[in-house]
Amino acid sequence: MPATVEPVPPPAPTNGQGKGKTKPKGQSAGQAPASAPPAKPAEPVPAPKPAAKAPAKPAAKTDAAPTAASGTVIRIVAEEKPGQYELLIQTNKAPGTFAKMFLTDPPRLVLDVAGAWTYSGPLASDTGDAFIRHIRVGRHPDKFRVVLDMSPDAPARLRGAPTFERVPEGVLLRIPK
């Protein structure tokens, strides 16, 4: 049962003449005390707030605690098709969010898939393609990263912006060339 705090009555007024009974100012010794106005009901005193706790140490990140967007990256499939280059990150569960960025010196396309993903495939691969030269993979506690190392003239060769979409088997990247 929660503890309650009872209101404390206010102290009796004193006339500053020491200990003992006090009389209100302006009252002679033989007069009866004037009726005091009715006392207001005491308002409840809120319970004291607990002392502030010292800030907790941040919990150590563990790979054992998967997030909602986590699972296994089954494989990464790169395929050159007429007019475009496709990269599929195949997963066993639908990925949550993903972010993309293009870096220019040297040209690289980066795709981050949010979540704690496991992957046991190769971490780097040469493609043998003149446009996309290498594919690198980075595993992080909070994301799975794929980096496409592109040829130095790749920005000039792009016919449009790369597109990313969530597909039933994972994330599909299409690069028009």
Summarize this entry quickly.
Helices cover 2% and strands 38% of the residues. It is an all-beta fold and 177 residues long.
Average pLDDT reading: 73
Count of DSSP helices?
1
SS-based structural class?
A: mainly beta
Instruction: State the low-pLDDT regions, or none.
Output: 1-10, 16-24, 26-30, 44-68
The CATH architecture classification of the domain at 71-176 is: Sandwich
Strand content: 35-45%
| Overall outline | globular
Number of strands: 10
Q: How are the strands of the largest sheet arranged? A: 5-1-2-10-9
Separation, N- and C-terminal Cα atoms: 71 Å
Query: Can you give the helix content as a percent range?
Result: under 10%
Profile the largest sheet: 5 strands, mixed
Q: In the CATH hierarchy, what is the class of the domain at 71-176?
A: Mainly Beta
Order of helices and strands: EEEEEEEEHEE
Oligomeric category: single chain
What is the CATH topology of the domain at 71-176? Immunoglobulin-like
